[in-house]
Write a structure and sequence with these properties.
Strand content: 15-25%
Distance between the termini: 54 Å
Radius of gyration: 27 Å
Shape: globular
Largest sheet: 6 strands, mixed
Oligomer: single chain
């Protein structure tokens, strides 16, 4: 495991450049964030490969410099030489890094695997530490709480050649090992030990994060926790240990550290850059994060409109010989008993309400409108409300005052912003 040596921050869709080449030029572009030559070459190789890693970034050119542009992902990228690149959401680009980082952390709580994130503590509220240190500190805090409440022991099956008879005598091995030394007994027995699968996994996760933390407080707590696990071996078979984990009655306080442990051992997120050097990345597709956060918020806050469902996929665009083709799956669907149902879709894109309505079309995508037309005709029979939800930014602060009307005027599409600022109280206003 490589140790983190250098940290840098870039916004989503930002540019990364080779510092070895940029430093040669008299004037480097302010648009480019330099990283070490080794880190750049590693990421460039991944970018050009045919594997799934190439979807995280693309090769381009800015001001006569070859660059790597991060795509629509946010999180942390690691490289084998110890470079850590923090990627923050683009919609907060005009605000400070702390606000952007806090917005991402708040949205991540809507994902099932990050439900244990605590975003209301004082240190996190000030956002003085990078994303990686946030996750490590919360994992360590959960393990610290676990130790204070007590590590659970379990009966562990052992066998050995001991000086007194206990448990079950293994006759075959007794004859083999003690034909001459008759004063010993080769037995199989149980001992009540802390060496159980869940404890081995947590110990393994503690060792794994040791090389990634640069925060003095995290390092100090980490040493203390490792001392508490000194008598517990590391997991030799992670897959089997996870399959063997059972949280008995009275072990509910194990849930949070176990959830963090699984994330850490699996590489923190489902999307990882895993090469021969075993460098991984903590990256999140922002479309999925935004969609999950909006869905969670609306389920809690919309009342009196109808029943909200997420990822409805009951209809297809066409049929061929009774076979459905091209499944239509709107992000959100509101079922209403009296009025027409409502279809909502989230888009992680920046639109500009100040752009020309005629020439620039506010930066809206024609493809998105065709997609919504398909939803409207399939789910709403061409009559009712459609809603496109975009993140709120400095250039998109309020819902468009007029609806976009498809031909006939019975199918109307509204464009509304959703506020992802952590301090916001009212995140969305629906036009109905």
């Amino acid at each position: 495991m490589s140790e983190v040596k250098k940290q840098t921050t870039v916004f989503e869709f930002g540019y990364l450049g080779n510092d070895d080449e940029i430093s040669v030029k008299a004037q480097a572009s302010p648009k480019i964030q330099p990283i070490s030559g080794n880190a750049y070459r590693y990421l460039r190789k991944l970018c050009l490969c045919d594997d799934s890693e190439s979807r995280f970034m693309r090769l381009g050119q800015v001001d006569n410099c070859e660059v790597l542009q991060v795509k629509n992902y946010a999180g942390v990228i690691f490289t084998p030489d110890g470079t850590q690149i923090e990627v923050l959401p683009k919609v907060a680009k005009n605000s400070d890094e702390s606000t952007s980082r806090a917005s991402l952390l708040m949205m991540l709580k809507s994902l099932k695997q990050f439900r244990h994130l605590q975003t209301n503590n004082a240190n996190l509220a000030e956002n003085k530490i990078p994303l990686l240190e946030v996750f490590i500190s919360q994992f360590l805090a959960s393990v610290n709480t676990l130790i204070k409440r007590g590590l659970k022991s379990d009966y562990v099956l052992k066998e050995g050649n001991v000086a007194f008879l206990k448990g079950k005598l293994l006759v075959g091995k007794q004859v083999k090992h003690n034909f001459i030394n008759k004063h010993k007994f080769y037995v199989e027995y149980e001992e009540y030990l802390q060496d159980r699968p869940v404890n081995r996994l947590i110990h393994t996760a503690l060792v794994k994060v040791k090389g990634y933390s640069r925060c003095a407080n995290n390092q100090k707590l980490l040493q203390e926790l490792l001392f508490a696990f000194a008598d517990i071996p590391l997991s030799n078979n992670v897959k089997n240990d996870f399959a063997s984990v059972k949280l008995d009655r009275g072990m509910k306080y194990y849930e949070a550290p176990l959830a963090w442990t699984k994330l850490i051992i699996d590489g923190f997120s489902p999307l990882t850059l895993q090469g021969k050097s075993n460098a991984f990345s903590l990256l999140f597709p922002m479309e999925a994060v935004f969609e999950s956060f909006v869905a969670q918020y609306l389920k809690k806050h919309i009342t009196g409109i109808g029943e909200l469902s997420a990822q409805v996929g009951s209809k297809s665009l066409v049929d061929y010989d009774s076979i459905p083709y091209f499944l239509l799956k709107p992000d959100l669907y509101i079922s209403r008993k009296v009025d027409s149902d409502i279809v909502l879709d989230t888009k992680w894109k920046v639109i500009n309400e100040k752009n020309s309505a005629r020439r620039d079309k506010f930066g809206l995508s024609q493809a998105d409108f065709y997609q919504m037309l398909g939803y409207g005709h399939t789910y709403l029979k061409g009559k009712g409300f459609l809603v496109l939800i975009y993140p709120k930014t400095e250039v998109f602060t309020s819902a468009f005052p007029h609806s976009f009307n498809y031909e006939g005027g019975t199918l109307k599409l509204w464009v509304v912003p959703f506020d992802i600022n952590p301090k916001s109280e009212n995140r969305i206003e629906l036009p109905f």
